[in-house]
Design a protein that fits this description.
The complex is a heterodimer of chains A (about 190) and B (about 270).
Chain A: H1 12-22, H2 33-39, H3 71-81, H4 98-112, H5 117-130, H6 156-166
Chain B: E1 18-19, E2 37-38, H1 46-54, H2 71-76, E3 81-84, E4 96-100, E5 103-106, H3 108-127, E6 132-135, H4 142-152, E7 155-157, H5 169-173, E8 182-185, H6 197-204, E9 209-213, E10 224-227, H7 233-260
Parallel strand pairs in B: 6-7, 6-8, 8-9, 9-10
Antiparallel strand pairs in B: 1-2, 3-5, 4-5
The chains are: A mainly alpha (about 190), B alpha/beta (about 270).
């Protein structure tokens, strides 16, 4: 069957149409897709586009960057807290990250309109901390929920000195001795 | 050795269709031999066959393909995610919505329209008994593509594409080979990120193509491009599912129409569906 192998000239459709028009391809040999293409053509003709040489001069941005107004707040959040405490779980489409909650709270406070700009950030931080998300500022260690056991801060030498001061009189046993082994002082 | 479409047959419903044993896909695992059948000439029902053939062309969405997918489905399957700004192909710029922190985002409104058009074309080809070849050189999705093709009774080629597969078919496979009537590219790139040879060869052999073009692909030679992600498994499975459902729907419709019009029982089903 005759064909035209010039993929750089015209589209598949125009070539077949012209072949049929000129009689090279008989009507009975019409390809299956011909009528379908004629009724439902593609949105853009599949013409071959020659690769163009590099464009000189200023390249205008054909594809715009996508930025939102909340991006400012997100930037502030990440600056203050580093990457958030919770990892992103992208398998759930309804997942709300820590940063997103921060942004939502921020916009909520902003829409209420009572506080001014500086305090907005602080207020949002406080509100999220109150919700116990474990947020912390970069550089400042996390606030422990329980205080250190005061017993751990005691030093043995101090304890010993106390013991001896308590114990009546004389024996000044040198060195470290366990509190339970206080020598019995002959009275 | 890479195998293409090997059904021997003659185009056109007016002539007796003789289909020899052929093999689908590549490799010995996917050999499905189509039976040798001869349909009797039916000169009196050619008008009826004509009518069946041309009836779907009157409605814009004869197969109701718009109900198969929605914008949310595309979004959830991550179809809108393109590559980074540096990988962008100049000709994909009209199909992009924007670039978020360097990553190109594909405009899903355009994708919806293109996908509808592509699926519609595929359905019509399948309705008319055309041969559809699925091509993808992504090794990650080779199995998915091959099983999709098997499920809808069509063919797939996910291995190394030999140079003369389409352009030198009579020499490589014997004379009288029937070439595919539609080639569906589930990824238009090959393993070295250049355009797949099949895109250019199909244009050479006047075979229309449907292709999923990512933001680093060249959409110019693809007849019905579908701008979308071709790297995520979720997106690929979505495309495979959509194509499979479209082709099955179209073939079922054809069988239904033939039965209604009282023609001889449909003899030429290519593989099981």
């Amino acid at each position: 069957m005759a064909g035209s192998r010039l993929e750089k000239f015209g589209t598949v459709f125009t070539r077949v149409r012209d072949l049929m028009r000129s009689g090279v391809v008989k009507q009975s040999d019409k390809p299956i897709w011909y009528d379908v293409y004629k009724t439902f053509p593609p949105m853009k003709d599949p013409l071959y586009v020659r690769p163009v040489a590099k464009r000189y001069g200023k390249k205008e941005e054909a594809v715009p960057d996508i930025f939102y107004r909340e991006d400012e707040n997100r930037a502030k959040f990440y600056e203050g807290c580093g990457t958030g405490p919770r990892a992103f779980d992208l398998s759930k489409s309804s997942f709300v990250s820590t940063c997103q909650r921060f942004v939502e709270k921020y916009t909520e406070f902003e829409s209420q309109g009572e506080l001014e700009k500086q305090s907005l950030f602080e207020e949002t931080g406080k509100a999220l901390l109150a919700e116990d998300l474990g947020l912390r500022r970069r550089g400042i260690p996390a606030v422990a929920s329980e205080t250190r056991n005061p017993v751990l801060g005691m030093k043995l030498t101090d304890m010993l000195a106390e013991q001896q001061a308590d114990a009546p009189g004389g024996t000044r046993a040198p060195g470290k001795e366990k509190p339970t082994q206080v020598p019995l002082n002959p009275q | 050795m890479a195998a293409g479409v090997l059904t021997k047959g003659l185009c056109g419903f007016r002539q007796p269709r003789i289909v020899a044993a052929g093999y689908s896909c590549s490799g010995p695992l996917y050999a499905t031999a189509t039976a040798v059948k001869t349909l009797p000439l039916q000169t009196d029902s050619t008008a009826v066959t004509d009518k069946i053939q041309n009836l779907p062309l009157e409605t814009p969405d004869f197969f109701h393909l718009s109900e198969l997918f929605s914008l949310k489905d595309l979004f959830d399957a991550r179809v809108h995610l393109g590559h980074k700004k540096g990988c962008r192909h100049r000709l994909m710029e009209p199909y992009l919505f924007g670039s978020r922190l360097g990553q190109d985002i594909i405009d899903l409104d355009q994708t919806m329209a293109h996908l509808q058009s592509a699926l519609n074309f595929t359905a019509h080809i399948a309705y008319r008994g055309g041969i559809i070849l699925f091509v993808s050189r992504r090794r990650q999705f080779g199995h998915v593509v091959e099983s999709t093709a098997g499920d809808c009774g069509e063919y797939a080629h996910t291995r190394y594409w030999q140079g003369g597969l389409l352009t030198n078919a009579p020499i490589q496979y014997g004379s009288g080979v029937r070439l595919p009537d539609l080639i569906v590219f589930l990824s238009t790139l090959n393993n070295v990120f250049q355009q797949h040879v099949g895109v250019r060869d199909a244009a050479k052999m006047n075979i229309p193509t449907v292709g999923v073009v990512d933001s680093n692909c060249n959409p110019s030679l693809v007849t019905y491009p579908v701008p979308g992600n071709d790297d995520t498994p979720a997106a690929m499975e979505l495309y495979c599912r959509l194509f499979k459902m479209t082709i099955n729907r179209a073939k079922d419709k054809r069988r239904q129409m033939e039965l209604l019009q009282g023609l001889s029982p449909p003899g030429l089903t290519q593989g099981s569906s």
